[in-house]
Amino acid sequence: MKPGEVSLVVISDIVCPWCYIGQRELQKAIEDVATDCDLKIKVEHRPFLLQPSMDESVALDKATWYLEKFGETKLEQIKSMVISRAKEVGIDIRFEGWVSQTIRAHRLSRKAYELGGQEMQEKFLDKLFYAYFTEGKNISDADILGEAAEEVGMMSKAKVVDFLESNEYQEEVEQMAVDARKKGVTGVPFTIINGRWAVSGGQSAEVYAQIFRKLAGKGPLHAIPNAPTCGDTTCPVTAALKS
Fold this sequence. Notes:
Layout: E1 5-12, H1 17-33, E2 40-47, E3 59-61, H2 62-70, H3 72-88, E4 98-100, H4 103-133, H5 142-151, H6 157-165, H7 170-182, E5 187-188, E6 190-193, E7 197-200, H8 205-215, E8 230-231, H9 239-242
Parallel strand pairs: 1-2
Antiparallel strand pairs: 1-6, 3-4, 5-8, 6-7
Helix pairs in contact: 1-8, 2-3, 4-5, 4-7, 5-6
């Protein structure tokens, strides 16, 4: 690791609202410290599969899926909490549309990182998050994925179809998700800093900025608060409803 360089590995899944919120918070923190911290912050996004056993060809009604998973009362709590926090960071999260397996989306995310590094990967993920949470689209659908890739200048829809028909990045994505669990990751987002420290949950921009300033020698590091995550049985509530 070069002096002044910070490496972040963000483990997340695209169907997790705290991953979407957390990405916006992280992006804001990087912008906030750009003027007073002489740091080069590199971000790589890696996959986590919240529904690893779901078939890639299946798409379920999101509203029904959430209702069956949590029940009406708890779901209303979840909606209120998530929507409120999302508005604070300028995003619109809705609970209508389709929920599906995310392996195809993660494969393309890895391809985006290969083709255009951090910038391309984050543009592509921003598109997918918006498609899933705001537009309610099925992000396992090849046409939807192709539109997102084309809109960010990653590749054409036709090339996306060819890519998805191949096995490229299939094994890598599945292995990365398995490795994350083996290392003890049970909820996302989960951020690894310089390969040494970890921060769990959808933290605020202030928390991330505090970490960056500490690494730059510009300020103290206070205790990192608990933050909500998505896990196998808890998405999208966890810490927030337990506290």
